[in-house]
Amino acid sequence: MKHLPAMLALLLALPAQAAEKLTVALDWTPNTNHVGLYVAQAKGWFTDAGLDVEILPYTDTSSGTLVATGVAEFGILSAVGFHSQRSMGADMTAVMAVVQHETGRLVFNGERDDIQRPADLDGLTYAGFGSAWENALISSIIRHDGGEGTFETVTLGTSAYEALANGSVDFTLEVSTWEGVNSVLLDRPQRWFTYADYGVPDQHTTFLGGNSTWLSDNPATAKAFVQAAQRGYAFAADNPDEAADMLIAGTDGMLSNPELVHASMAALVEGGFLRDPGEPVGLIDPELITAITSFLYEAGILRNADGDVHETMPDVSGWYTNAYLAQSAAQ
């Protein structure tokens, strides 16, 4: 026992093991789709896992590109962007489904009597965001309802919502759990068509993805990160108000409308978008991946590494994995 003080002194003198640094890229400015990351950061769950996690500021370079090129080990990925880049051979793998079901919808002014069904959109003006997915999606919805699928497009980006409100365009697409919630707060009456009602398959709209090469080289670290993030999203699903406050606090004033953040979290939870009953938060459904990829393939959107349209349906089995997730229904 007389040697105990000396042993303690030696242990205290040893350098602490440095936390492993990881970076996560966002697919947009901070919003409720990112809440699990900020909860895990606020709760210290990344630190507990031996990780020093930096959430990178959003830039004009897509999160998918940052992940595929190894600039970031992980990223929040929009589904259509992920499928498009992965079909071209991008070095990334989806490791968690952040949003379990389609949150997008086609919206128009709720006071218009001339739009009662998708076929009524033929010849009208759409405020868009510049992707091939939009044209395929909207024309498919209209044709499914018996229309021709023809419409005019003006690319406005996020200005589309103001344009819709002031009547300078006829319809646009929105995320129901963010722009849709905001339209209610702004007292802008809307009606909408849900994609799945008109032949478009359901999908996970947002993923957490990792650089495939890095994942293969660092399986233990990858699992530690993914499960800490998964724990953050599980907490958010159970405690939406508290998670909203953590998101607001963690984004240094970037989210200036707390009412919108709280209402968006409520919409995500009440709509069942963060968790399917009886399943772990974040579980990727192979059937959803296959169905939406098939839709994109048949629409001629997916291209190979040479930039040519795929002649056969891509094999999606290596595009995703549930191996890093905790597999219990409650994390």
For the termini, the CA-CA separation is 42 Å
CATH overall fold name of the largest domain: D-Maltodextrin-Binding Protein, domain 2
How many distinct domains?
A: 2
The topology string of helices and strands comes to HEHHEHEHEEEHEHEHEEHHHHH
Brief summary:
The protein is built from 13 helices and ten strands. The protein has 331 residues and is of the alpha/beta class.
Features:
5-stranded mixed β-sheet; 2 domains; 40% helix; alpha/beta; 13 helices; globular; D-Maltodextrin-Binding Protein, domain 2; 331 residues
Secondary structure layout:
Layout: H1 4-13, E1 20-25, H2 35-43, H3 45-48, E2 51-55, H4 63-68, E3 74-78, H5 79-87, E4 92-99, E5 104-109, E6 125-128, H6 132-144, E7 152-155, H7 160-166, E8 171-175, H8 176-185, E9 190-193, E10 206-211, H9 212-217, H10 219-238, H11 240-250, H12 258-270, H13 286-298
Helix pairs in contact: 2-10, 2-11, 8-12, 10-11, 11-12
Give a written overview of the molecule.
This protein is an alpha/beta fold and about 325 residues long. The chain has two domains: about 20-100 and about 205-300, 3-Layer(aba) Sandwich (D-Maltodextrin-Binding Protein, domain 2); about 105-200, D-Maltodextrin-Binding Protein, domain 2, CATH 3.40.190.10. It contains 13 helices and ten strands. It has helices at about 5-15, 35-45, 45-50, 65-70, 80-85, 130-145, 160-165, 175-185, 210-215, 220-240, 240-250, 260-270, 285-300, and strands at about 20-25, 50-55, 75-80, 90-100, 105-110, 125-130, 150-155, 170-175, 190-195, 205-210. A five-stranded mixed β-sheet has the order 2-1-3-10-4. Helix 2 crosses helix 10 (about 220-240) and helix 2 crosses helix 11 (about 240-250).
